[in-house]
Amino acid sequence: MYDFIGDIHGHADELEALLLKMDYSKKNGIYQHPERKVFFVGDFIDRGPKIKETLELVKHMVDAGHAKAVMGNHEYNAICFATPDKENGDYLRKRYYKNIKQHLATINQLTAKEYDTYIEWFKSLPLFYEAEDFRVVHATWDYDAIAYLDQRLENQRLSNHLLPESADRDTRLFLDIETILKGKEMKLPDGLSFHDKDGNIRHHTRIKWWLEAHETNLRDASMVSIPDLPAISIPSQTLGKAYKKEDKPVFFGHYWLKGEPGLYRNNICCLDFSVAKGGCLVSYRWNGEQQLNHNAFVWV
Fold it and tell me: Binning pLDDT at 50, 70 and 90, where does residue 237 land?
C-alpha cells in the first residue's frame, strides 16, 4: 500500500514530520515502513530552505525501494535549465531573470557536483505512472497526451536525445509534456487578470481538467478564485477528454490548493496544499480502495 505525498519544494522538516506521523522510521539512514511505501508526485526542489536535505531523503528512499516518484515540472525545468541548446548556443530553458529567480534557491543550496548528480537523477524519473489500480502524474492525466508520450518515451522516461524536441514549443512532444506536468489553461476574458503566488500577472487560469466541458463553465472550472470571472462556456478542445468518473484513482500535485485537504471527486486526488506558501504538506494513505475517502488524508 502507498502513502502518496504532494509537492515538497525543499521543506525537508515538514517531510520528516509527515513521515514520522505516518509511523515511518529511519533505518540505516533511510526512512521506511514495515508494510507501506511512499509515492512522491514530484516538485522536490526550488523555493524551500532545505532542498539538499529533501533530495537526499527522497532519493535514498527511492533508491532503496521504499518509495517511488514521478517527475514534477520543477524537475523538468531544472533539466532544461542545465542542458545546453547546441543549436542556438543557449540552454533549453532560457536563463531569463524569471527562470533564474524561480530556480535560484536550488542553485544556491547545492554544490556544482551535487547539482549535476541530481539533474541526472531527475532524468531517471518517469513522467507518469500507471498501475493496475491507480495512476500518478504531476499535474494532469490527459488520455491523449499520455497515449502519445507512452509511444515516444522510454519506459515513461525522457531520454537525452528527446530533450531538445521536448523544449521546442512547436512540437507535440512539448505540448503534451506541458499538459501533464503543468496542467491545462484557458485564456481569461479581455480585461481580466490576476497575480499568482509569486506576484506575476497572469492572463490564463488553470482549469479542472477532469470535468466535462458541457457540465461546467470558466468560473467553476478555474483552479483559482478570480473576482468577476464570468460563467462562460469552455471550448471542448480546451478541456479535452474528461477523466472518467468510473476510472481508477489518479493522484497528482501542482495546484497550490489552500485550506484543509479534501477530494474533488472520489477518484480525483490533488495533494499539493501549498507547503511552500504557509500551507501544509499532505499525504493520502491509500489501501487499495477505488472510491477514495476524505478521512485518508494526513498532513502537517
Answer: confident
Of 5, 59, 71, which Cα lies nearest the Cα of 36?
5
Q: Is 28 exposed, middle or buried (0-12, 13-18, 19+ CB in 10 A)?
A: exposed
Residues in a beta bridge with 3: 38, 285
User: Is the same domain home to 160 and 143?
Assistant: yes
Q: What grid cell was written down for 188?
A: 481569461
Domains in the chain, number: 2
The domain of 38 spans 2-184+249-299
Question: Does pTM top 0.85 for this prediction?
Answer: yes
State the Cα–Cα distance between residues 66 and 2, nearest whole angstrom. Answer: 10
What is the rounded distance in angstroms from the CA atom of residue 90 to the CA atom of residue 202?
Answer: 26
Q: What is the pLDDT of residue 156?
A: 97
Same domain, yes or no: 111 and 160: yes
Length of the chain: 300
- For residue 4, what pLDDT is reported? 99
**Which residue type, as a one-letter code, is found at position 31?**
Y
Domain shared by 265 and 279, yes or no: yes
Predicted confidence (pLDDT) per residue in 139-176, tens digit? 999 999 999 999 999 999 999 999 999 999 999 999 99
Q: Does some domain include residue 244?
A: no
Report yes or no: 53 and 119 within 8 Å, Cβ to Cβ: no
Provide the mean pLDDT of the chain: 95
Other beta carbons less than 10 A from residue 172's beta carbon: 14
- Whether 66 and 208 share a structural domain: no
Residues 100 and 166 reside in one and the same domain = yes
* pLDDT the model gives residue 168: 96
